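Feature request disguised as a bug: please show the residue count (484) next to Histone-lysine N-methyltransferase ASHR1 in the output. Example input:
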Amino acid sequence: MEDLQRLLQHDRALSVSTLPDKGRCLFTTRDFSPGEIILSEEPYVSVPNKSSGESRCDWCFTSSNIKRCSSCHVVWYCGSRCQKSDWKLHRLECQLLSQLEKNRIRSLTPSIRLMVKLYLKKKLQDEKVIPTTVMDNYSLVKNLVSQVGENQLVLYAQMASLVNIILQWPDLNIKETAENFSKLACNAHTICDSELIPLGTGLYPVVSIINHSCYPNSVLVFEGRMATVRAMQHIPKGSEGQDVDIRESAVLEGYRCKNHTCDGFLLRDPESKGFICQQCGLVRDIEEILKIAGEEKTMSEKASAALSSGHTNESLDMYLMVEKLQVKLCHSGSIKLMRTREIILKILMEVQDWKKALTYCRLTIPVYERVYPTTHPLRGLQYYTCGKLNWEGGMWLQWQHEDNIRERDGCVVSVATVLAVIFAMLSREWLLGQTEEAIKSITQAVDVLRITHGTTTPFMKELLGKLEEARAEASYKLSSMDDQ
Ligand SMILES: [Zn+2]
Ligand SMILES: [Zn+2]
Ligand SMILES: [Zn+2]
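Example output, currently without the count:
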């Protein structure tokens, strides 16, 4: 840890400190400007997602021109460069995988593979076959924190015994392996491409030190397997992010005013038994709030049970009732209400009620814009989607990727997905092929994404290219209008 401290301080102007209620955080020791890279890290170990019909290179995650490893027939590579980079570790993994029965191989999940690779890498670093560096060593992994629930431990123990079957190490500690699974669950990152489509999972122990509450004004993006944390807003020296604005959280998580025409936010009054509207001064009784909250909770549980058992229409009616109760209960800018509307939106799309879906899309946008800061990549992507659609038309979104979304990053990616659909539909309503609109959206996208993604990645080059094309098309249209 001292070595890492020294390296971060010297090379990156960062320091690690422990805060009483947050755990370890990274602090900046100089100013960072928007778009500047705060930290880059290669994964300690990583694996591609496993999805039916699509395989990816084990090293760089590309899905094009890949070939199966000829001895284990499990792992894929795009070429000899990636295969060579992975060889020291895969040589051992390959032997183990080759010995497995066919049905065991089918049940090989990315989490199991990640754990096997974790142990193999530790072994190889202990034996000095793979060099150890300050940013790349097992003690960083060992220092990661985890929280485990009782019921998960049973599952993790089962997974650990599977790892044992694969590794066949006589002195493997099952309990420790189970604990390591909970560490992975808490700390592993979903590796996404520039459009936030999940490609795989990786363990980035140094990036993990920056937990999200520490740095709301930075963003994590992936360039291939490399994780990069960039500053989104100017981050002054010594900062570890902004204090949570009381007003903002009262809107996002709080109750609405008793007067339904009032947009004020409510704060708990320590003297009385209620919440006071900070705009008009009306008091909302706590008993009344608890009553609606109780009804809302019961209905939510019923609705989600109906949805997961496939009773789509029934669940839609229930979710509409949940929404009604939440409108009574929550501020119009509340995240809870937005999440309910996202679910309703998804169901409406499933039953292909496009008109109503569009109404719900529009309802979610203001909250979304509130939750994500202006330079958040999702907002950039949302403009990008909009521009792409205005220009090319049609749905480009691939729903099947939804299956790959993992719980941890679930909320972020599902919002992106929903928004992409929202804009797909909005743009279909607004005339397709409007070049001017497209230029406006792409320009907005570029402004955001040049900060979050840099300007040298292939995705950004494509985007900048599209902007040029759209501009050329617009000026051609203008000049042909002059001719008439
Ligand atoms: Zn590759
Ligand atoms: Zn192999
Ligand atoms: Zn009020």
